[in-house]
Amino acid sequence: MRPSRLTPRRLARVLLLLSGCLLMSMALALAMGSVRVPFGTILQALSGRGAPPEASIILLQVRLPRILLAALTGAALASAGAAFQAVLRNPLADPYILGISGGAALGAILSTLTGTDSTFGSILARPLFAFAGACLTVLAILALSRSRGVTASTPMLLIGWIFNSFFLALILFLETAVDFSRVRGAIFWLVGTLSPTPYSVLTGLAAAVGAGFTILWLLSRDFDLICAGEETARHMGCNVERTRVLAILAASLITAAVVSFSGLIGFVGLIVPHAARFLFGPDHRLLLPASALLGSAGLVLADALSRTLLAPTEVPVGVLTVLVGGPAFILLYRRHRWEISHD
Predict the structure, then answer these.
(1) pLDDT tens digit sequence for 189-206
(2) Which of 43, 150, 265, 299 is found 20 to 30 A from 306 (Cα to Cα)?
(3) Could you tell me the pTM of the whole model?
(4) What tens digit of pLDDT does each residue of 283-317 get?
(5) pLDDT tens digits, one per residue of 85-122
């Protein structure tokens, strides 16, 4: 069934529904864990009235910051994936496959190995190193995939995949070459691990993700035109190259921002935009915010499960996203093939 035409009323209705789903997922995540907390106690703690001190510490200093980080990470990766799939016109594009997550991870690891994040600007060092790694990766990919003034999407994906493999190998080499005590947490970080983060850091992270997402949403009309065909987009007045570069840089910004704190979490940027497109249609004015909200809710629930499944042992959330995302992607791919064969 074809999705209905996008109207302001439909946009508001869908976003309100998804926002409610996100709030419900956050409430469930606050209650779940090795220590179950009743919803009444959660309301007391959030309102600052009558909650036991132990429950307030668990909820406000441990779970809530981690949930907020999961929500920001899911939103950033999903919206970045939707943007990459649009400007590259390739359903397999996402920050991980393009090597941008790997470049950001390498920058973050280097900030730890060099001691920069513990001796100077400890709060900003890792995100800045991660953003530098992501930007250098983007610039290299753009330069290598450019031919006769045009950036080709297929070479960009191939080059990004090669870069990502190289970065992961280099990170593993660095972990092997240095003192293990300095990088003992890096292996879990590489497969995606969320941890409580200070509220001041979350505020800065939210500002970076919000700024990057705003740029992407302002380009949503151009994304629709590019998806219809680059020649069509140029005839309609869209500067395809400018839109592509701006979108890639904005998506890289929000990817680097969250990767520096959450590590490499795969499949969110690949699967969630496909699910949002299937549910709500291809119009990027709705697809981008819908992907962000779905990504937030999905990663919040995945993190809650990672804390609960083998409690008190914790499963890295990146492991769960791959275990769920892999089969989901196969199902989406098979459905896409079936729809093509029956058109």
Answers:
(1) 677 888 888 898 899 999
(2) 43
(3) 0.89
(4) 999 999 999 999 999 999 999 999 888 878 888 89
(5) 999 888 878 888 888 888 888 888 888 777 776 665 56
According to CATH, the topology of domain 68-341 is ABC transporter involved in vitamin B12 uptake, BtuC (1.10.3470)
Q: Give the phi and the psi of residue 239 in degrees, each rounded to 5.
A: -85, 95
3-state SS string over the chain? Answer: CCCCCCCHHHHHHHHHHHHHHHHHHHHHHHHCCCCCCCHHHHHHHHHCCCCCHHHHHHHHHHHHHHHHHHHHHHHHHHHHHHHHHHHCCCCCCCCCCCCHHHHHHHHHHHHHHCCHHHHCCHHHHHHHHHHHHHHHHHHHHHHHCEECCEECHHHHHHHHHHHHHHHHHHHHHHHHHCCHHHHCCHHHHHCCCCCCCCHHHHHHHHHHHHHHHHHHHHCHHHHHHHHCCHHHHHHCCCCHHHHHHHHHHHHHHHHHHHHHHHCCCCCHHHHHHHHHHHHHCCCHHHHHHHHHHHHHHHHHHHHHHHHHCCCCCCCCHHHHHHHHHHHHHHHHHHHHHHHHHCC
Each residue's pLDDT tens digit, 51-86: 788 888 889 999 999 999 999 999 999 999 999 999
- Is residue 240 within 8 Å of 228, Cβ to Cβ? no
- Residue 73: which region, alpha, beta or left (left: phi > 0; alpha: psi -120 to 50)? alpha
**What whole-number distance in Å separates Cα of residue 107 and Cα of residue 288?**
27
Is the per-residue pLDDT at 124 higher than 80?
A: no
